[in-house]
Amino acid sequence: MKILNRLLALMLLLLAGSLFWIGGQLLVAGGSPYYVLAATLLAGTAWLLWKQAAKALQVFAALWAGTLLWALWESGLNGWALAGRLGLLTVIGLWLLTPWVRHSLGIAKSSPVSRALLGLALGGLIGGTAWIFWNDRITGGTDLSTTSGGPVDPAAKDWISYGNVPGGNRYSPLAQITPANVGALTEAWTFSLGKEPNGEAAPFEATPLKIGDKLFFCSGYNDIIALDAETGRQAWRYAAQANTEGIFGQTCRGVTYFKVPDAPADKPCAAMVYTATIDSRLIAVDAESGKACATFGQAGAVDLLKGMSAAPQGYYHLTSPPALIAGKLVLGGWVTDGQTTGEPSGVIRAYDAVSGKLAWAWDIGRPDRSGEPALGETYTPGTPNSWSLMSADPALGLVYVPMGNATPDYYGGHRTAEMDKYSSAVVALDVTTGKPRWHFQTTHHDLWDYDVASQPVLVDLADGRPALLQPTKRGELFMLDRRTGTPIAEVTEQKVPVSNAVGERSSPTQPFSTGMPSFRGTIPSERTMWGVAMIDQAWCRLRFKQARFDGPMTPVEADKATITWPGSLGGHNWGSIAVDPVKRIALVNSSHVVTYSRLIPRQAANDMGLKPVAKPSFENVAGPVAQAGTPYAVSVAPFLSPLVAPCTEPPYGMISAVDLNTRKLLWQKPFGTMRDSGPLLLSTGLPIPMGVPNIGGSVVTASGLAFIGATQEHMFRAYDLRTGRELWKGRLPAGGNANPMTYWSDKSGRQFVVIAAGGHGGILSGYSDKLIAYALPRSTKQQGKSQ
User: Fold this and answer.
1) What does the buried/exposed string (b/e) look like for 302-337 if buried means 16 or more CB atoms within 10 Å of the residue's CB?
2) Is 782 exposed, middle or buried (0-12, 13-18, 19+ CB in 10 A)?
3) DSSP single-letter state for residue 578
């Protein structure tokens, strides 16, 4: 034991030295003195252990007790905060209490205190492990004795657009799957996309549509696929032959379906399916055969680069399906982040759904022009774009466009008044003219990459007012009157920190949705810095003290690093929210991930070799980027410890329900477990309910269920919408980072729930090419058409 004691002494001495070095810097920076004091006691423990002195236990006991008092003073009874502060010391302390260590130090092998502490620790370990797995069980009912039949309204059987309805509420009136039987849900079929034509894996985050007896969806490289809705067997596949060169992400979130009014059913292209491609084409195919619609555009496709300024391949492309309203397909486009001023235009365009002819174009820089640019001209470069999902209100004749900001993201001194006016706003465009009727800006003069990523969701309130809910990356959920853009729930302008960057003119105030719950999470502070062990926690505290953080909306600066909270992941992202329009309950999933950023003066950026890339990649978007044409490049990264774990304490993801009548939270809980994540990018395999980052959305049904994947964990879940109780889960081959959907199949008289389990590189949730459908067993006895 002498050798083991001395090995432990050396480890404690190394830990003490590291803590003293980091803790000393932290103390000089104005941080907590705890780590210097702890290092001193650890060094004392190490010296006494080396000498085989029993006093080592007393010194360590003083350290542990002092740490407990300090932890309680800093964080109260916050379990995650206490675990980060006490975990490592508790493991060391329990080892020191073992009979063989005590005996080697010349004292009794045990004492009433040591036995009690070891017993308490063992009981806690067993009880905690049992609770983790008990909490992870499926609690939904399995009663299949009486289940409802199909809906009376045939339209309720389908899922006709990305959010099911033009207003994007992600609600289905189906109710065969209920809290009483969801525990019996089982995998019905699986479809594999296969690899992309160049042999590489492609992301898969599409939400299928279901019309009649077919599902329609796209691959990440824009092949359009039709499946039999009952069996998942392929009916046809259209090969888009998309050029993937220089395309970052290779994402297609879905397709659009249009039935031509009064067209004979047997006429080719009487119903069409559209995809907006990663190589900037708008393609139309026959919904029945999968063949290109020759009369649409040029041989079935419209060139979306027409009128755009010259740029490298992949700087402009499309990832989201067009919005359909009044026989028009309305779309924006994705523009590569952070490269330069004057990147391709963020123009919003509408095309005739039958012919593919341009109906109108809304170019922020040329509001007087509604058609294509004249020969030799282009749409205005560098204007805010809309890469996410749009919504529409056919009765009002409006399409609601969630806008990004002008390129590049983290500097705006060059932006025009027109760019600033519509940047990071939701804009209501008249579907006939393409002209704005109103706009509401969620972030003034955006310097944080807070583009509006979420699809606006339309809902009618109990008093009859037509509302629009706009989730944002900021974690603010705005409720607006969708006729005028006027806030229904209170919005206040609050003072925020201002930028000190050369030539910048940041806004002194920002809008906060004070009339709705906030989904920003816990505000970062030195006390909320977290770590698996003491060293990484001290390191995170030091990095926090070395950075600028003056609260939400702290601008990125060059003199020191800046904490951005929430980070550009959100808050809320493209998965948006789901709303039950009958119960008026919104299901909201959110991420709590902080970024650590810094502006890089131009000369330093030049010395680093930062320049606009010729071929975009993930590193060119999520790492240091050039921001050419401005005084600064920028470095943006998640705020992670040396163990590649977040520096802020959990949870990192939440799921919540909001009562839209009272505008209060019904419930809120951590979303997802550590099963597929952990320090050093290793999966723990344990379903510890930490709450994890998430990308993707949900679907809610008339039976009061909510289905959602979205997490870094490879899991698909069902919740009771009213109570938040987790009722069911299904293991996925990768993260379900897509929006699920649900539909009815007459062939077996069953409701299906479908999700693309493609994973997402941005949250390290794996990769898969699987589309998976779930349903109740075929032997289900039905009561008849009760819906």
Assistant:
1) bebbebbbebbbbbbbbbbbbbbbeebbbbbbbbbb
2) middle
3) E
Cα(first)–Cα(last) distance of the chain, in Å? Answer: 72
Q: What is the mean pLDDT of the chain?
A: 95
Phi, psi of 172, deg, nearest 5: -125, 135
CA distance 94 to 556: 44
Average pLDDT over residues 205-226: 97
CA distances to 390, 460, 573, 657, 667 from 469, rounded to whole Å, are 12, 10, 14, 14, 19
Confidence of residue 783 (pLDDT cuts 50, 70, 90): very low
Query: Could you give the C-alpha distances from 769 to 88, 93, 234, 735, in angstroms and in order?
Result: 40, 47, 15, 11
Token couple for 702: 């008339």
C-alpha distances in angstroms, 556 versus 522, 620, 775? 20, 18, 48
**With the CA atoms of 513, 514, 519 and 521 taken in that order, what torsion angle do they form, in degrees rounded to the nearest 10?**
130
| Residue 753 to residue 738: CA distance in whole angstroms | 13
- Whether 782 has a pLDDT exceeding 80, the answer reads no
Please report where in the chains the tokens 């542990």 appear, as a residue.
64
Query: If you ran DSSP here, which 8-state letter would residue 22 be given?
Result: H
Q: Distances in Å between the alpha carbon of 135 and those of 36, 81, 130, 686, 688?
A: 39, 21, 8, 12, 9
Output the CA–CA distances (angstroms, integers) from residue 695 to 205, 206, 709, 738, 760, in the order listed. 10, 13, 9, 7, 8
Instruction: Quote the tokens at residue 481.
Output: 């009157």
Q: pLDDT of 454-476, one tens digit each?
A: 999 999 999 999 999 999 999 99
Decide: 496 and 490 in contact? Cβ < 8 Å: no
306, 372 in Cβ contact below 8 A?
A: yes
Ranges 535-549, 579-593, 613-627: which has the least confidence: 613-627
Q: What would the DSSP string read from start to end of 483-536?
A: TT--BSS--EEEE-----STT----SEEEE-TTS---S-SPP-GGGB--SSHHH
Cα–Cα–Cα angle for 633, 277, 590, rounded to 5 degrees = 60
- What is the three-class DSSP state of 112? helix
Judge residue 376's burial from the number of C-beta atoms within 10 Å of its C-beta, 0-12 exposed, 13-18 middle, 19 or more buried. exposed
420 an active-site residue?
Answer: no
- Round to whole Å and give the CA distance between 88 and 514: 40
The DSSP code for 280 is S
Strand partners, 237: 225
Pairing of strands 578-580, 492-495: unpaired
Q: Tell whether the torsion through CA atoms of 378, 383, 387 and 390 is positive or negative.
A: negative
Peptide linkage before 651 cis (omega within 30 of 0): yes
Which 8-state DSSP code applies to residue 176? S
Place of tokens 């804009």: 427
- Average pLDDT estimate for 360-366: 97
> Position 772: which residue type?
I
Query: What does the DSSP assignment read for 368-381?
Result: T--SPPPTT--SPT
Looking at the chain, the whole-number percentage of residues with pLDDT higher than 90 is 90
Angstrom distance (rounded) from CA 272 to CA 268: 9
Length of the chain: 787
Residue 240: DSSP 8-state:
-
- Does residue 659 sit in helix, strand or coil? strand
Rounded to 5°, angle at Cα 360 from 356 and 366: 140
Q: Residue 600 is which amino acid?
A: I
Q: Which two tokens stand for residue 220?
A: 């990440």
pLDDT attached to residue 780: 53
Q: Please give the backbone phi and psi of residue 284, each rounded to the nearest 5 degrees, phi first.
A: -125, 135
Q: Are 339 and 613 in contact (CB under 8 A)?
A: yes
Instruction: Tell me which residue has tokens 């932290």.
Output: 26
DSSP H or E segment with residue 441: strand 436-441
Q: Considering the candidates 449, 451, 536, 676, report the single residue annotated as catalytic.
A: 449
